[in-house]
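Case study B.
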Amino acid sequence: MSELGTIKKPIAEELEIFEKRFKDSMKSSVPLLDRITYYIVQRKGKQVRPMFVFLCAKIFGPIKNETYLAASLIELCHTASLVHDDVVDDSHLRRGVFSINALWKNKIAVIVGDYLLSKGLLLAVEHEQYQTLKIISTAVKELTEGELLQIEKARKLDITEEVYFDVIRQKTASLMAAACSAGASSAGRSKEEIADFKKFGESAGMAFQIKDDLFDYGFNNVGKPTGIDIKEKKMTLPLIHALTNCSPKEKKSILNKLKRKSESKQVRKEIIAFTKSYGGIDYAEQVMNQFKDQAISLLEKYPSNEAMTSLKLLVNFVVARNS
Ligand code: FPP
Ligand code: MG
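Model:
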C-alpha cells in the first residue's frame, strides 16, 4: 500500500462517500459549468484538506454528517481559490494538466471560481452549519488578504522573513487551520479543543507551503512549472534567506535582475544557483521541519488511536511529499 493509502486507511470509507458528495455539490444545470466541474473532479488532487477534516474528527469517534459537510465546504473553497490563483499567477498547469484558465480563458475561470465558492457557502447555509461557515469564511477572508499582501510585496521586492510568514500563514495555513478546527468542531468538541486543532492545522499548513515553495526550486516533477515564483517576482523563504546573508552589492544585483529580467530563463537559473549557494534550500527545509514538529507536539494530549497515527503520518507526508 502506498504511503497515502496507509494514511487514508482509517477514513477510507468516509473518503469514498465524500467524493460522491463533493461531486454532487458542484452540479449545475448550465452545461458549460457541468463540463468544467467534471474536468475539475477528474484532475482531483491529493485531497489533503478533506483528509485533515476527517482525521481530526475521527480521533474523537465515528464520523457524522457535519464532518462530511465541513470537508465539502473546505474542498469547494480550496478548489475555488486554486482556479482563481491560476488566473492571478497566469499559470497554465495545475496538477500536471492544463489549468481552467488555460483551457477556457480567464473570463470563464474567474466565474467558475465564484460559482464554486457560492456553492460552498450555500451548502453550509442549507444545512445550517453556521459554526463551520464561520470558521471557513474567516479563512477565505485571510486567503484573499494573504494573496494581496503577496502581490504588494512582489511589486516592491521588499519582503522580509517575517512578512513571508504572514503571507503563507494567511494564504495557505489559514485554510489548513480551518480544515482541522472544522473537523474538531464537527465532532462536537469544546472551544479549547477546537482552538488546539486550529493551531495544529496552522503549523502543518506553514510546513505545507514552505514545501510547496521549495518545489519552485525544481527538485521534483510536481506537475507545476518550476521557477514560476521567481518569474512572478514572488520571493519565498529560500531566496529571502540568501538575500539576508549575501553582501549588499550582491543583493542589489540580484534584486535588479529580479526586477528587470525575471522573464529570462537564464536569470531564473542564476537566481536559483545564488539561492542554493547561500544555503537557502537547507534553511527553508530546517524551518519547515520546525513547523512540522510544532504541529505534532500539539497532538500529544489527545487520544492515541488509529486516526491519530494517520494524522501524524499525514503531517510527515506534507513535508516529505514529492508532489
Ligand atoms: C496558491 O498559492 C494559492 C493560494 C494558497 C490562495 C489563493 C487565493 C486566492 C486567489 C483568493 C481567492 C479565493 C477564493 C476562495 C475564491 P501559490 O500560487 O503559491 O501555489 P501554487 O504553486 O499551487 O499555485
Ligand atoms: Mg499559484
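The first strand starts at residue 93 and ends at 94. The remaining cases will be described in the next quarterly update.
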